[in-house]
Amino acid sequence: MTQPQAVLAAILGAMLALMAWRRWRHDVVALAALLAAAGTGLVPADGVLAGFSHPAVASFAALLVLAAGVRNSGLLLAPMRALAPWLERTGAQVAALGGIGAAAAALLGSQGAAAAFAPVPAQALRRSGRWPSRAVAPVSLAFTLGGLVTLAGSLPNLLVSEMRREMTGEGYGLFDFAPVGGAVALAGLLLLVTAWRLLPPPPSGAAPPAARIERYTSEVHVPPGTPAVGRTLAELERRGDGAIGITAVIREGHRRLPPRPGLVVAADDVLVLVCGLDVLQRFTGRLRLQIENAGGDVAADPERVGVIEAVVSPSSRLVGRSCAEGGLAGRVSLLGIGRGEGQALMRLRRVKLQAGDVLVLQGELAAMPPVLAEFGCLLLAERRLRLGRRQQALAPGALLLAALALAATGALPLAVALLGAATLLVLLRTLSLNELYAGVDLSVVVLVAALLPLSAALRGSGLAALAAEWLAVPVQGRPAEAVALLLAAALVAAPLVNGVAAALVLAPIAVAVAARLGAGPDPFLMAVALGASCNVLSGALPLPLPAAQGWDGGAGRWRIGVPLTVLVFAVGLPMILLNWPFQPGTPP
Question: Which of 78, 73, 119 has the alpha carbon at shortest distance from 392?
Fold first, then answer.
């Protein structure tokens, strides 16, 4: 081992150890390792920032933007309307939600699909009045399995494909991962449908988190010619996926009609609704309704407009007054009020505010915090919503499918097709620029961009070839055993550090092992991609859902994670050997 190789090995070893320790963020650790390698001359100065222009980084960022558009559209809620009556049992919930989530992950990537899918479980399970916490972890793990199926499904798949492109001039196709990943995903989903029973049941008498879904009273205007005109209230509530309550109808500006299910909605009626913000956005967009603003219109740049929630403090000058009486009207737009357990209120402009009321306000995000402080209101959360905008339900999904079709047929590289689709989302005003940038996880972008030059240094310094020489000694003449070792190493390394680091460190070694054994690189790279994408033992769940019973404490990781990891190895290894020959050449 030469001195530069020893220094690089020390830097990479320290980086992986710190990542496994989890004391500092992985992107910070990767940046520190990159700077150390650049300071010792192992990474050239002009290559330090090269990772930010890598096609895998561009593809990942574009997928997250498209996922934000899919989430805003409510497209993933459509299958839930048909499946809702059959979601009473936990096994059915895991099968339905996990299956849809896995399919979404195959198209959007596991992280992007998790972001787009986040509103679906709560809405789908709302009718049952409970959230079965033992289903949370299996449903979330289904996203990881779905990401194995396509090139776009996971970052390790994208990175391994680009490494192959650098070697042979041709990367993997969109569905080249499907024979192996599809078999593993199917077997894994079958396991998850029953494995939820391995998790401990929730404590008796525990309150279901779904019962605490935030609900606000809002008012919407029914313009003439919109789909709501001529429909009954019962029909409109069904269009709200069972998550909307219509508490009153205001007709002719002053007549308050009781909410009878058979009441037919007329043009220019005002509906008083009780629902959550995400539901309100989808419902008004779907039926082209206009959200009434009880605080008066506020002039603002649309690109800087957002929605926030604020609570009225006991010392606020708004207590005992309406929005107009307290002087808030004209400063921000009041779109809804939450009180108690979703308690329905009268007309918003007449409501006397109380301490503890939660206000839904819209305006320029930078200007609202000082206004809230002036009125004695405390900021609770900032929502990436633009309420009142017409929803374009089909545009995000259509653009995503078009981009993947162009990539699958070879008409455009995947990164170019996805970036084009993301740009069209903004041009069609389906997403604002603020929503576009908010949808990108910059910590992952920085992590990948920092690790890519280190991976190139691992290859260029000869350290990968040296590691391959050591690995090839015990498996000389038996390439199948080398594939098994790489798959096992990736499955262990991914939860210890992270999947991206595991892929970028092990992939150069896999290529060198293939060359050492005189075999083609494909089965070795596939082993690394599969193992690095299956990060199921780290304790972090892809889907940000509450109350993952038995998972946070660690028991779930071993009761479900270990059997799932063993299954990935047992199914993945023979599928790799069956579908990817050892002879040098192009993919079958």
Answer: 73
Going by C-alpha positions, the residue among 456, 462, 516, 458 that lies closest to residue 485 is: 516
CATH placement of domain 302-383: 3.30.70.1450
Q: Is residue 252 left, alpha or beta, with left meaning phi > 0 and alpha meaning psi from -120 to 50?
A: left
Local structure of 378: helix, strand or coil: strand
Q: Are strands 245-251 and 255-257 parallel, antiparallel or unpaired?
A: antiparallel
CB atoms within 10 A of CB 289: 23
Nearest to 67 by CA among 120, 104, 121: 104
pLDDT score of 185 = 95
Is the pTM above the cut of 0.85? no
Looking at domain 215-275, its CATH superfamily turns out to be Regulator of K+ conductance, C-terminal domain (3.30.70.1450)
Q: In terms of Cα–Cα distance, which of 292, 382, 283 is closest to 337?
A: 292
Taking CA atoms, 201 is separated from 88, 98, 205, 554, in Å, by 16, 20, 11, 14
Question: What digits encode the pLDDT tens for the residues 436-449?
Answer: 787 788 888 999 99
What is the predicted pLDDT for the residue at 160? Answer: 94
Q: Look up residue 323 and give its two tokens.
A: 């929005």
CA dist., res. 275 & res. 285, Å (int): 14
Read off the pLDDT band of 241 (50, 70, 90): low
Domain with CATH 3.30.70.1450 in the chain: 215-275, 302-383
DSSP one-letter code for 264: B
Tokens 């890598």 sit at which residue? 54
DSSP track, 184-252: HHHHHHHHHHHHGGGSPPPPTTPPPGGGG---EEEEEE--TTSTTTT-BHHHHHHHTTT--EEEEEEET
